[in-house]
Structure formats: structure tokens, C-alpha cells
């Protein structure tokens, strides 16, 4: 990861009265798997389209590898976009689909074939070259779209919710493969998703979007463990906030704090927990959900508010779990796991 692949400065885009992108500054490094994460309408697709050149900004600039491309057409930029609907040509074979971009660029036939086969091997689709898209599964079509993007060796690959159409199992499998492929080919990937788990699984870094702006940029663990805003705390992972008065009673400080559910231990109310760096709160179990590998407890705190705690089912069975409802418990967590977020 030597240089800067993409630099956005003061980027803005309005559609009529809607400020889809309301001032974005961002640097994406060479060779990085970078995700833009946010809810529907937060502006991430528009940023992707501004990088690709499908939209012209209302303000600010786009640089690719140190070159200002703000006013350049899409084909003059060294990027390739993979869309969710794949956009494969149905009448062409897989190999022809993959080689198409090279044909347009007048690469000789023999070379096209070699490169198309290499790209198909990179997405683990050797031997599928002569099929048509209709003879492939959804996941395989997705890989063809990826091979078609890789074959031209762009500097940057833009992916707009590319796994959105796949079922959950396939999606999870493709997440791991996509990450492995990216690592092998070393191309910068910019990945748009509204799925926080997907972003956490695959990315080197994530930008969290909210209302046309970026709220936080960081590695998955930073975003998850150290959310800098209430929005990030609630959008990434389970929202679990201690507010003013209950925070004052439990932590001795009246701010708003985020505590991740898996950091909270559920103990008997009588359990002793008087270590100085451990916070403790008593309450009543309002709801308990058996999840197979873990159990989720929703606890109404005596100090006010409700927290969710997630416990691994080491020795717990489904029957034990049901018996917890309505019982008194003590929640404990390490103080450093209560992260202050601005009110
Ligand atoms: P999604 O995950 O639903 O695609 P997003 O975060 O990618 O959402 P954008 O598609 O960038 O969000 O849209 C941001 C805002 O800009 C939305 O309010 C959307 O309605 C608006 N918008 C996007 N494109 C256009 C357009 N071509 N014309 C008018 N408004 C648009």
C-alpha cells in the first residue's frame, strides 16, 4: 500500500433540493479493500458514481493516482465498475463476455483469449468459458462480472452492492472469496454496501456514511470498538446505549456511552463484582432469545434504560434460557468497553 489511489476533496452533489453528497473528504490507498457503508439514501452510490465519472460533482474534486479527473469522461479514468445486476451479454459465451472490453480496445485475439482465461482462473471459473450466462448460477454470474472487470487490470475496481442479489449462504462464501481475490490481484477495491457485517468481514478500512457525509473512517475493529458518533455506534453492530442519568448512576459520568452486547456478562444478582475497573448494573431480564450458539438478553436496568447482552452458550441449553425471563441479574463489563459518544 504505497500511494494514494483515490483522493476526494470537498466533494458535493445535489439533485434539485437533495444534497446527496454534502461535502466528502476521503483518501483511499493503493491496494486497499475499502468499503463505503451506510443506510439507503446516505449518498454512497452517488460517491461511487462520481469516482467513476457517471455523475459530475456540484463542487469539489476527484483525483485518481494523483491526477485530477473531475472533468474527465468515465472511459478516460482507470477504473471499472461492477454493478449488482452484472450486466452480462446473454448472447455471448462467458469467455466472450470477459474478453469484450479487450476487443473494444483492439487487443489482438490470441492475447484476449489468454487474458480472459487468466481472469476466469482468478475468479475460480476455469472450464466455464464456453457456457452462456443463462447456464450459470447467480454466484457464478457474479464471478463472470468480476472477471470481466479484472481482465482490463484497472487500477481501481468500484463495486456497487455486488453481492446484493445472492442468497445468504452464497453471499457469505463470496465475501470471503472476493476478499481473497482482491488480495491476490492487488487492485484497489471500493465496495458499496448497506450491510455492516459484510463491510466488517471484508474491508481493510470502512467509511460510514450518513446523510451525504462521512461520520467515521477506520479499520473494522476501530469502527466497531471505538465508534466516534452515536450514529456509527447504532448503525454498526447492535445499538446499545447508556444515556445521561443511567450512565451517571452506573459509570459516574452523565454522557452517552456505547457498550457492545458481547462485552457484557450476565451474572446472578448476588454475584460480587467490586473490582475497580469493572462496571456493574443490576436489572430484570425482560426478554431472552436463544440463538443456538449464543443467547441474547434484554435487561431493564434499575438505573434506567435497557441493555442487550450476548452470551456464548458454553453450557447453557434452550431450557435454561427460558427460565431466565423475569429473573434478577447483574450485568458487568470492563470499563474500557463503555465508549463515550457525543450526545
Ligand atoms: P442505496 O443504498 O439505497 O443505493 P445510497 O446510500 O447509495 O443508497 P444514493 O443512491 O447515493 O444513496 O442517494 C443519495 C440521495 O440522493 C438519495 O436521497 C437519493 O434519492 C438521491 N438521488 C440519487 N441519485 C439521484 C438522481 N439521479 N436524481 C435525483 N435524486 C437522486
Automatic annotation (TrEMBL):
InterPro entries: AAA+_ATPase (IPR003593), ABC_SmlMolc_Importer (IPR050093), ABC_transporter-like_ATP-bd (IPR003439), ABC_transporter-like_CS (IPR017871), Mo/tungstate-bd_C_term_dom (IPR008995), P-loop_NTPase (IPR027417), Transp-assoc_OB_typ2 (IPR013611)
GO molecular function terms listed in the Swiss-Prot or TrEMBL record: ATP binding; ATP hydrolysis activity; transmembrane transporter activity
SMART domains reported in the protein's UniProt record: AAA (SM00382)
One Gene Ontology cellular component: ATP-binding cassette (ABC) transporter complex
Pfam families given in the database record: ABC_tran, TOBE_2
Chain ranges of the ABC transporter domain: 6-236
Gene3D superfamilies named among the record's database cross-references: P-loop containing nucleotide triphosphate hydrolases (3.40.50.300)
SUPFAM superfamilies: MOP-like, P-loop containing nucleoside triphosphate hydrolases
Keyword terms: ATP-binding, Nucleotide-binding, Transport
PANTHER family in the cross-refs: SPERMIDINE/PUTRESCINE IMPORT ATP-BINDING PROTEIN POTA (PTHR42781), SPERMIDINE_PUTRESCINE IMPORT ATP-BINDING PROTEIN POTA (PTHR42781:SF4)
Protein name: ABC transporter ATP-binding protein
